């Protein structure tokens, strides 16, 4: 099956980035969210990102115009009916994802591929909500999607070879370098390795051994992207880190994946990072350098 139409479920940090890259690559894209405010915010972010790429000569004016022309928004999930590929990018909660996949299974064409951008949840568990587990696959992008080049392609227990190969080819067509994860285990590769380090960084802040800025400077010094774990968590959302860690903890029972008290308290206070204006850094006046708040 040739992929021409892509439907993205979720207009947040990851969803709008995936929609942007698919539209930039020439696909017809619909970005869906139930709340009009989130759709508007998602489109605003895409325009901001495209404008930044244009100003830096990363894309041409023609690409800018074509990308915007390829993008539509909708609050109606049933509009996924004509899509060849659906990419779900909603919060990391299994019940939410299973509900969306069950509904997509009812409205999507029989041959459509249903992909999930989950950071850690079992693809097999998500696929169990559908009658097409062979056409469910993981496409784990990293944020910010227009900047980060990696995408993990994850096979569920019943994902077909054709689905796996098609998802891989599509991710590469939108400019990503892919890593193939053929065994469905929580956390896949990158987060199975990175999450313990991120949680240890939170513990260092919690015990007063280092500030968020000191940790980011130490970890990112000399790195190409220049971004440390505290800023990565703030960008993605501390709730995303928490849910990812819990998914791996619940799957493995390994205590090193259990979120430390400080992270749990920050969630309780709705201190979730950039999207709430405060995380390990403050974003009320932040441009390039964050003011430390924790």
The proportion of strand residues reads: 5-15%
Order of strands across the biggest sheet? 3-2-1-4-5-6-7-8
What Rg do the Cα atoms give? 19 Å
* Number of helical elements: 11
What is the mean pLDDT?
Answer: 93
CATH topology of the largest domain: Rossmann fold
Describe the structure.
The chain is α/β, with parallel strands linked by helices. The chain has two domains: 5-181, Rossmann fold, CATH 3.40.50; 194-286, Orthogonal Bundle (N-(1-d-carboxylethyl)-l-norvaline Dehydrogenase, domain 2). Helix content is 44%, strand content 15%. It is built from eleven helices and ten strands. The strands form two sheets. It has an eight-stranded mixed beta sheet, with helices on both faces. α7 (190-206) packs across α10. The protein is globular. Residues 286-294 have low confidence and may be disordered.
Keywords:
about 290 residues, alpha/beta, Rossmann fold, N-(1-d-carboxylethyl)-l-norvaline Dehydrogenase, domain 2, 2 domains, eight-stranded mixed sheet, two-stranded antiparallel sheet, 11 helices, 10 strands, about 45% helix, globular, disordered C terminus
């Amino acid at each position: 099956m040739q992929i021409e139409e892509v439907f993205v479920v979720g207009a947040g940090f990851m969803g709008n980035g995936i929609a942007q890259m698919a539209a930039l690559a020439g696909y017809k894209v619909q970005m869906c969210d139930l709340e009009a405010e989130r759709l508007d915010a998602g489109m605003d972010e895409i325009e901001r990102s495209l404008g930044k790429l244009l100003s830096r000569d990363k894309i041409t004016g023609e690409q800018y115009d074509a990308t915007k022309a390829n993008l539509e928004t909708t609050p109606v999930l049933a509009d996924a009916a004509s899509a060849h590929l659906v990419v779900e990018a909603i919060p990391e909660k299994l019940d939410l994802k299973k509900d969306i996949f069950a509904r997509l299974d009812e409205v999507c064409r029989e041959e459509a591929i249903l992909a999930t951008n989950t950071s850690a949840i079992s693809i097999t568990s998500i696929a169990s909500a559908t009658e097409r587990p062979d056409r469910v696959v993981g496409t784990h992008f990293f944020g910010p999607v227009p900047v980060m080049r990696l995408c993990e392609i994850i096979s569920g227990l019943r994902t077909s070879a054709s689905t796996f190969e098609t998802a891989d080819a599509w991710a590469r067509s939108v400019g990503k370098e892919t890593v193939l994860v053929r065994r469905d285990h929580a956390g896949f590769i990158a987060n199975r390795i990175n999450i313990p380090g991120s949680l240890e960084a939170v513990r260092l802040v919690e015990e007063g051994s280092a500030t968020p800025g000191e940790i980011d400077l130490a970890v990112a010094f000399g790195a190409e992207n220049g971004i440390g774990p505290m800023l990565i968590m703030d960008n993605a959302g501390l709730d995303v880190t928490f849910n990812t860690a819990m998914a791996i903890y619940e799957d493995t029972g390994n205590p090193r994946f259990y979120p430390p008290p400080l992270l749990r308290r920050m969630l309780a206070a709705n201190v979730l990072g950039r999207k709430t204006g405060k995380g390990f850094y403050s974003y009320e006046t932040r441009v390039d350098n964050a003011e430390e708040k924790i």
